[in-house]
Queue: 2 jobs
Job 1
Amino acid sequence: MELDILVFGAHPDDAELGCGGTIASHVAQGLKVGVVDFTKGEMGTRGTPETRLKESSNSAKILGLKARENLGFEDVFFKNDKEHQTEVAKMIRKYRPSIVLANAVTDRHPDHGKAAQVVQGAWFLAGLSKFETMLNGEKQEPWRPKVIYHYIQSIYIQPDFVIDVSGHWDTKLKAILSFQSQFFDPESKEPETYISSPTFMKMIESRSMDFGHSIGAQHAEGFTVNRNIGVKSLADLI
């Protein structure tokens, strides 16, 4: 299956928190979007790997994803090396997206910046004709997406551009809250964490409103790029 947009996240729920509105918006436009999670979040204080996979599946339905996979990398301990870049390159060649979305280039959780580096390396490898990969017993053809955009996570980063997601905030919120084990639940008996407090969800909403305000919209999500964005007309920037 070929996708228009392939989103990578170090952990289940990274994609929802960082760019869930953008995903929902582009699905509504008729584009095919998929998510590949690196880990099962097994080092997280709350929930279990099995719970996280079930929650990921529920979120995928809410967002209308065409595909969702988990690479089973070791949470916290995965590395930016040939082995991990190769597995990500296989996903790029499998789904052949035009656009890749990846974790923030730096963030509170070190896995996020590390995942961004893995994706950047895999993006280049996937386009090399002499770099051979096999998937399900078949040789894969080279494929390099046109661009990588990095979504913004917990730590504020000045965005290079923002996407208006005003009409899709509710879908984003439902997708986030499908991860019931991770976020605020007054009935939960599990330890409180950085992301389980009500304050964290308020930050997510206020961030989207702040980005939205910058373009005269109610909600928006920000992204950074590694190269200049080129257009043929100033009207394309409106």
Job 2
Amino acid sequence: MEKIDYLQGTDKTISDVKSKGAFLVVKSEVDNRINTMTIGWASLGFMWGKPIMTVMVRKSRFTYQLIEKASSFTVSIPEDNLEEALSFCGTKSGRDFDKFKKCNLTTILSKSVTCPIINIPGIHYECKIVYKNKMNPDFLCKEYKEKNYANNDFHTFYFGEIVACYKNN
């Protein structure tokens, strides 16, 4: 594993998340249940003097139940074409399927957080949750609300301090 700066290749990272998706992995610290879901939205930045990745999870998602009982999350951006697995993990619920088994995905221990990473070649972010905030629809512009939240299933934002970032071959 090659340690990399979290901003290294940011353009490609954001482009890959936007076009192909990435795997968000969470692990409940109450019952140790693990789930992954595909994300197509994320933000990388620098806040509170730390590198931060922000991910969004809707309350209706199974992942939400787990991340609410977690202190960390990981994001894995595949180097290889895992379009079928990303599609499955983005359209099926962990309530109904073991996504890891169905997609032949395995996890390995992360370096710095309790949540594992998916064992695939790619860039991996390990994030310690430092802040979360439920969206307040009163502050969202009408255009975004109508386009993205017609059923009022608003996101919660999870701000994760990036405590490790590396490329796994």
